[in-house]
Amino acid sequence: EVQVLESGGGLVQRGGSLRLSCEASGFTFRSHAMSWVRQAPGKGLEWVSVISGSGGNTYYADSMKGRFTISRDNSKSTVYLQMNSLGVEDTAVYYCARGSGAWLYLFDYWGQGTPVTVTS
Amino acid sequence: VVLTQSPGTMSLSPGERASLSCRASQSFSSSYLAWYQQRPGQAPRLLIYGASTRATGVPDRFSGSGSGTDFTLTISRLEPEDFAVYFCQQYGMSPTFGQGTKLEI
Prior knowledge:
Chain A has no helices and eleven strands. Helices cover about 0% and strands about 50% of the residues of chain A. Chain B has no helices and eleven strands. The interface of A and B includes residues 45, 47, 59, 95 and 111 of A.
């Protein structure tokens, strides 16, 4: 059974940093790209970043470039999202999602999310 | 690509048919259109991809159609568990989501 479990969310002051983790199981981890997708309170979904299965390729939404860094450790089946220079607009539930084998951005399994609250 | 979903909220009863719309700001391949369901307090669940292909385990009362800039998710007979928020997504370069349609009883 595929499982995706995020952790690391919490309360942080504006300008601060936070590192999210996403541990996956139930599939060949290195064979799948992994993304972070966020959802601000009462809002829709916003793709944040993706990392290829090997970790050699990473892409970011424009508003996250230069502030967020995605990485992965295939030996631990874990993806990370390092978030720096956080603003109140980054307050959201952050979901980790698996890219389907064929399409980078088609998300076939999601975690339950970890909430991030940035205070002013 | 900006995706606009309508209506924002739809009120129906169990057993009725629901048709949810997703309109794109520019045409793209229907191969890259997906629908997700999100129940309160839960993560999104993939329902449809390639505009019309059901994901594994999705009941056949869910169907997707459309091409170009206009796409539709249809639920033929609503079950109580179908009342949720539905998002469309294009999964080409730089993926984007619609703002969602809330299906309420």
